[in-house]
Amino acid sequence: MKISFAKPALPITGVAVVTATAGAKLSASGQKLDKKSGGALTRAIKASRFEGNKAHNLNVMAPAGTRLDRVLIVGLGKVKDVNELEMQKLGGRIYANTKRVKKGSVTVAIDAVTDAKMNTQEMAAQIAYGARLRSYRFDKYKTKQKESEKPSIKSITVQCAGFATARTRFAGLSKIADGVFFTRDLVSEPANIIYPDSLAKKAKSLEKLGVKVEVLTEARMRKLGMGALLGVGQGSERESRMVVMQWNGGPKKTAEKSKGKTKAEGPIAFVGKGVTFDTGGISIKPSAGMEDMKWDMGGAGVVIGLMKALAGRKAKVNAVGVVGLVENMPSGTAQRPGDIVTSMSGQTIEVLNTDAEGRLVLADALWYCNERFKPKFMVNLATLTGAIIVALADQYAGLFSNNDRLSERLSKAGAEVEEQLWRMPLTSAFDKMINSDAADMKNIGGRGGGSITAAQFLQRFVGKTPWAHLDIAGVTWSKKDSPTIPKGGTAFGVRLLDRLVSNNYEGK
């Protein structure tokens, strides 16, 4: 689907979209179309319950005096409703309502809203962005789709004053959407297609955008002492991998002063859990619902998609992405409950449950990232625990952190893009629950506080570096549509972290 921008002009054919504010007040373009159609829009409004509220739409079919197939009147709501998020949702709803248009073309007329804080150019760009986000489809394996089931929309043209400015603004937003789509693709692929080596190759594709990508083999990781990560994958015939991605878009010689000395400033860092399929290992999961475990690499998918977004829009920041990629399978070589492994940090771990594997992968990934890059901060993402779904359902991701400033910035960024976070506690009482009688720690802490003890486990591998852990188990996959997210992989975290970067670290 092509999205373009143009100067205001009444559309002649296809589907026209006009806006109305609360009280069913038609926009200037709507009033012109109403006049041209002999008052067809006004009559339709009076004959309906449409009042111009946000999320409300009204279809006027084949209005008299025009060659249009349809006019879609969309509600903007009150002036305060004209904001970034609502315009994105509006764009998503426009796409959802017009995706099967017969002639394939849709024209959206955007007019200024009196007293609104957002100008028409920004409104137009955000509406186009929302439409693009909603347009995502993963149907590559469907061979018998009926034509009536496929989107027929070919183009959306957004008309507004200063359309060139809107086009430029959308270009940057579209690069973020590229990262979102990349993540959705990775999460949606089945485990026979996406496994550690193939996912590493997908990450390598970012090199064409200027991202430096390294792939660590099992032999390399063994030399580095990554016994925690390697233990998870030892039951699989597919070898484990670690991928290191570097985007160097910021100053090359940035420095900070510390205790009277000047030292090179580290990059910002993102670390992802990449369990490409999780059977649970020897602690095998029930068969019902196990197919969902193809997206247990959601954290890694977000980090890879984020790096694509940052590179695509040429973000002025130095960023590192590290993902640990394994397949957790039961076999004669699989890790057993009761095994003790030595992590890269030198700390030993008693593995009491092989289905608590993501934290083992992240333990070595976090330590490696911290030791090699000395980052300003680390944020890791993982579909880590079922317990976070019990606590927060599919409404929030769990946020755990050792740094209030980083937490606040993450929460603010999440609210701005509607990828909400809820901060959970980290205390010594929970930390004691993962002490082991046989090793330095055990990988589970008992039935209570499962998400918290998992986070406490991770904290033992970050040192004093500002760090945050996002448990995205409940928000990585959606079974229903929302305005900008079709059901399936959500890519929750890509837009959040991109906003974190742009708000706080870009060019600084």
> Which radius of gyration do the C-alpha atoms yield?
25 Å
Q: What average pLDDT do the residues reach?
A: 96
Which consecutive residue ranges, at least 5 long each, have pLDDT under 50? Answer: none
| CATH C-level category of the largest domain | Alpha Beta
What is the count of DSSP helices, taking H or I runs of 4+ residues? 15
- Known CATH architecture of the largest domain: 3-Layer(aba) Sandwich
Gap between N and C termini: 36 Å
CATH level 3 topology of the largest domain? Aminopeptidase
- Any idea what the shape is? elongated
What's the count of strands? 22
Helix and strand composition category: alpha/beta
Q: Kindly report the spatial arrangement of strands forming the biggest sheet.
A: 8-9-13-12-16-20-17-18
What is the strand content? 15-25%
How would you name the CATH homologous superfamily of the largest domain?
Zn peptidases
Largest sheet: 8 strands, mixed
Helix fraction bin? 25-40%
Integer tally of domains: 2
Textual characterization of the structure:
With 508 residues, the protein is of the alpha/beta class. It folds into two domains: 2-173, 3-Layer(aba) Sandwich (Leucine Aminopeptidase, subunit E, domain 1); 211-258 and 271-504, Zn peptidases (Aminopeptidase). 34% of the residues lie in helices and 22% in strands. It is built from 15 helices and 22 strands. Strand 12, helix 9 and strand 13 (318-328) form a beta-alpha-beta unit. Helix 8 runs antiparallel to helix 10 (358-373) and helix 10 (358-373) packs parallel to helix 14. The chain is elongated and about 85 Å long. The two termini are 36 Å apart. The mean pLDDT is 96.
